[in-house]
Amino acid sequence: MKIVRTVQDLRAQISEWRAAGESIALVPTMGALHAGHIALVATALSAADRVVVSLFVNPSQFAPHEDLARYPRDEAGDAAKLAGAGAHLLWAPSVGDMYPDGYATQIAVGGAALPLEGAFRPHHFGGVATVVCKLISAVTPNLALFGEKDFQQLAVIRQMVRDLNLPVVIGGMDTVREEDGLALSSRNAYLTEDERYVAPMLYKAILQVAQGRDPREAGQALLAAGFAKIDYIEVRDAETLAPFVPGSGRPGRVLAAAWLGKTRLIDNVPC
């Protein structure tokens, strides 16, 4: 597996592959890779001739009070996992390469970006949309793959690609879970042993909401189980993230965010 750090070197390799008529899939990541990321790589390998994985902890999607400084980082370990998974290229740019001196452009997002995470983290999806647009523009992939664990993020990216006419297919993959149901996440490393025992309750709670339980009751059950705070448990339209209308014939999604100790967990299931 080749490792590059600049857009210039990335594009040189992409040009060679394009000249050979090869298709390209992109798997964007912020590192601290787990089995969910590797599953994305495996799917990408089955769908394209070449797989590029980007590794970039994007500062523009973190607010000043959030966990940018302590976000898990292990580039050497990540590179070894990706090489073992069969990825062809790891692009690991620096912050200076992505946001050079004088950088002054950001995408403003509405629609699916406004509720839920958008209400609690109003800075977040503008940073996500901007960096994903930059990643897609640099790699020019035929396909870009994202996990459904960050379901609202996936909806925002699909909205951006549609609205800006970007020539890429956006694919979503089912959330990869531990045996007890906890969604795989790099932030799970923050959980204490006791918190890790309680954490799967979030998945169980949203499954119950998908089956008809009142979201407020589900939230109270999580607080009783040891969660510190519930940011939201809501049923939304699976495409627009607008409030779900029962009987509309449209797919719904239960989305939740809750604090367990100092760790904020998010999860979602279809309904």
Task: Describe this protein with a few key phrases.
globular; 271 residues; three-stranded antiparallel beta sheet; six-stranded parallel beta sheet; alpha/beta
Task: Provide an overview of this structure.
A six-stranded parallel β-sheet has the order 1-4-3-2-5-6, sandwiched between helices. The protein has two domains: 2-173, HUPs (Rossmann fold, 3-Layer(aba) Sandwich), CATH 3.40.50.620; 186-265, Pantoate-beta-alanine ligase, C-terminal domain (Pantoate--beta-alanine Ligase, Chain: A,domain 2), CATH 3.30.1300.10. α7 links the parallel β5 and β6. It is of the alpha/beta class and 271 residues long. The protein is globular. It has helices at residues 7-19, 35-47, 75-85, 95-98, 117-120, 124-139, 151-163, 193-198, 201-210, 215-225; strands at residues 2-4, 24-29, 50-55, 89-91, 143-147, 169-173, 229-237, 252-260, 263-270. The mean pLDDT is 97. 37% of the residues lie in helices and 20% in strands.
SSE layout and pairings?
Elements lengths: L1 E3 L2 H13 L4 E6 L5 H13 L2 E6 L19 H11 L3 E3 L3 H4 L18 H4 L3 H16 L3 E5 L3 H13 L5 E5 L19 H6 L2 H10 L4 H11 L3 E9 L14 E9 L2 E8 L1
Parallel strand pairs: 1-4, 2-3, 2-5, 3-4, 5-6
Antiparallel strand pairs: 7-8, 8-9
Helix pairs in contact: 6-7, 9-10
